[in-house]
Input
Amino acid sequence: MDWLPFLWLIFSCMNLTLLGLNFYEFLGFSDLEADYLNPYELSSRINYVIVPEYLLHGALCILFLMTGHWIMFLLSLPTAYYNLKQYLSNKHLVDVTEVFKVVSTEKKARLIKLGFYVIFFGLVITRLALSVVSAVFADDEDIVAWSTIY
Amino acid sequence: MGMENPNLPPRPSSAASLFLSSAPVAGSEALVIRSAPQAFSQFPTPPFSSGPVVGSQGSAFRPPPPGSSNELVRPTPSPVSSSYGPPPTGFQRFQNFAMHSTGQAAPPLPTAQPVVPPGPPPTGPPAGPRTLAPVPILSQPQPPSIPMRFPDSTKTEQIHTNVHPSQPFSLFRPNSQPSSTSMGPSFATGWAAYQPSFPGVANGHPNSVPQAPPLHPPSFSSQQGAYAPPAPASPFLSQQRSYGPAPLATSIGYPGIQTHDHGIAPPTGTPQGMAEDFSSLSLGSAPGSFDTGLDAEALPRPLDGHLELKSFAEMYPTNCSSTFLRLTTSGIPNSQSLASRWHLTVGAIVCPLAEAPAGEEVPVVNFATTGIVRCKRCRTYVNPYVTFTDNGRKWKCNMCSLLNDVQGDYFAHLDASGRRVDLDQRPELLKGSIELIAPAEYMVRPPMPPLFYFLIDVSISAAKSGVLEVVAQTIKSSLDSLPGYPRTQIGFITYDSTIHFYNMKSSLMQPQMMVISDLDDVFVPLPDDLLVNLSESRNVVEAFLDSLPSMFQDNMNVESAFGPALKAAFTVMSKVGGKVLIFQSTLPSLGVGRLRLRGDDIRVYGTDKEHLLRVPEDPFYKQMAADFTKFQIAVNVYAFSEKYTDIASLGTLAKYTGGQVYYYPSFQSSIHKCKLKHELTRDLTRETAWEAVMRIRCSKGVRFTSYHGNFMLRSTDLLALPAVDCDKAYAAQLSLDETLLTTQTVYFQVALLYTSSSGERRIRLHTAAAPVVTDLGEMYRLADTAAIVSMFSRLAIEKSLSYKLEDARNAVRIRIVKALREYRNLYAVQHRLSGRMIYPESLKFLPLYGLALCKSTPLRGGYGDVQLDECSAAGFTMMALPVKKLLKLLYPNLVRVDDLLLKSYPQIDESDIIKMRVHLTVKSLDTRGLYIFDDGFRFVIWLGGSISPDIGRKLLGEDFSGDYSKVSLSPRDNDMSIKLQKMLFKFRESDPSYFQLCHLVRQNEQPREATPTSATKCINFSSRSDEKGPTSLTPCLHPLEQNVYA
Output
């Protein structure tokens, strides 16, 4: 039984979650700017999800590494580094008192991350499709050869 | 004599010869001392014969011990003192200056070898060379120092200290100027006395005048004159006027030399209009010279009281007073490109509850039946700038131009000119500042009662220092005047390693104390009765306050469970809101929010980690502050410790709750009692606005983007202020939304919605209009230095929380430099003013205030200069200071009072005192004088080294000659002491927000270590570095000058 499609399914699920979390955070900041949300609520909401998000990304990273997907691992590394840096310098949590000073930069950061995850998601889905295809047509030499090249 | 020993440390006599031979000023002084009639005929000779006379002064020429140059600056006690006073006083001081500058530059510069004039000065007397010889050596170190003017036109001969053979005289220019400023009026008079003696000079060379500006001292006094000109002369004209005498050297002796580096002066016939645009300051240094070229003394100084923008107020008479709202420039740029060329930030300083100027009380309006009239779209309140149309049925919003319907109740017909017929009865349409009574829609809950909650640290240090006693007494005496009787509520918590609650139920005779020792999970022992109505429980409260000091006087507990106590207070208060007053005497050491000693690692200073010392260490404090604000609780922190208390963390509580930090380093009951008492009383009794929010609206196209001060933002433009009072100001920066503004006027409306102590919901409105300008020059003309400085101080302090102090200071400098350079680009080229720093009249004090800001407590130096706690405390204070108080703090008043004490003035008025202010330079200090230095937070009483013993004895009693750090200025039973006390009282009365403690400083005497360290520091600071002598000024402005040129 080929386990690759399942692996890629897990990857894509994780990726989708990350995408969702980031979008949620981005939405929070937008709402704050538009005054639909007060800073207290925003900080409690975002601070609640931020560490799980970082952990999830870290897990994804490590999973890539463990399963030998070097390229994907390297691609996910910059974001992991960014997360780690934020975490270590204690900037990952939203500071409720100064949130309005950072709201635009935070939004920008979330937007970039969103873009990153979207692209990443595209890659993961492609690989998922390919792995499914290769699993189904395992006996078809050509496709297998093609997918390994990729 | 000087000739014979050129290389020895100058002796008095040689110095004397220097003066006499080199500087007309000195010469004339000598003449004054001796016989005046000889003055001109024998001019060259007196130097050698008059040594002893000026000798003692000359002693100042001795090479100063390194690092003590400031000492030198102070005139030393001198037998010549008799020469002071009469008109020539100015010259006397001038001479002092010369000495000072000479002394400053200790290492003789090899390049400064005496330059023998290329030839005998054309008009010079034969004595010229002879007198010259000693001079260069003496003055070498700082070539510029010697003012060169001879009263007689035949003696135009100069001393050549210049490095630059080709321009022997260029150096004099810049330096001679400083001296004149310091003397100010006295010099001017002295000079005036002289003028008749060389009539030809002044008039003879009108064209060369501009070239020589720096050459002669009077230019300063006259420059000053230009700011408050006796005649309506423009700065330029007056400068020219003042240069009158100066051309001597240039025109007669060495014409053309000055122009070389100085640039070409504007044509004499400068158009009036342009002359009004700016003033200028000679910054030109001679090429190759070591002098920065800046004459410190030429800087205009704000002696004439506060900076006000009169013209602007006249333009829009219905604007609110500038005490409430000040714009950094009243000309709003019409495009983003224009705004980007304006480096001084566009913004406003708002002090919504400032004490209204006398006679302009804010009227209260009650729209009882109509409801508050506001624009439907932008929610702007009706104000004097709205226009009524359609025969009074519609009104057009001035912010968003929406046509609103006028409600039936508010309707009034328009008269022929389009005015409402009932205009006179509508203060909201007449006045820029009004207060509306808000109806129920503006309440989220019933108006809260004023609530005071006291959180008192009772650990050993509090008991020992006497804090408890003073606090208890003060609170007790303020009980009657607490705002909001009879609704006022009050409560107490004390804490050391445990937390003590007090049940103050009105039915009790004595308060019940409940001790909670579980700090991890603080629970409140009683559901209510910890917070009681003052009028009901008055007896219990008084009983508690009476017993508080004695209860803990033997407390040996050193711990302080501050965090848990804070949480407990929060739990008790969160239903109501109000104000917490924290009296903290030690570093919080137990439970959540415990802090550790920081800042004792000197290596951190100056590194990228430095700023971490100025931000709260534990996120607990920020979180607590946010929670407090959410529940409408303001926090005022009173800190008393002599050791590190981490004000940076504690102050955060005040910062985000609209509170205030009071810091009494090393509190000692005997010294600080009055101060604490006054400030606590004021804190408790001043009119306070509770559970307030503030929003500043402005016209379409512009937007407030950032806010600075002590508050918390609840949404992008809504400031949450649990408590506001007249001592709090907020700054906001403006930016343009659109690339081009099409409107002619931009309107601002500050709206503060609050609950008054009496339980009324009110809206305080301040409306102002400002013109939109298309021209950068106009922006400069309408600039408001005071607001700019206030804005800069907030920006810099905020910057110091995330960067090094150095960076914060640089940011201020860079902004000023950029602004001046931009201004220069605007005008200098077309008027060929190279070599001079030009600045608009409106910004004439900006460089000075910028410099003062960089030297202010929160931004100054590093580890050695200011203790971390002081730095943080001052930072929190300055973030909230209203404009005028900030200006006073940055550029304090210095008043000489010994004359006043000796003479019998019946009454001393505030205005007289303002007039008596002198420059904050070391040169203003006379050894025989008694000065009061007042920055709004403390007095420093400076006694000259040779002050008359009589004054000293009368004021200080027999301790006069003792150690000043131990002497207090207690009232004594003699007229002089009484008069001084009266004077101090007057000063304090004029600025009641803080109590100014007196610090005594005697010239040349370092305050001893015995005094509390911080007090020592402040005295040091005041007596030495703060008096901005050229020493300190020059290096600071040096980069400024270089960059403006670049």
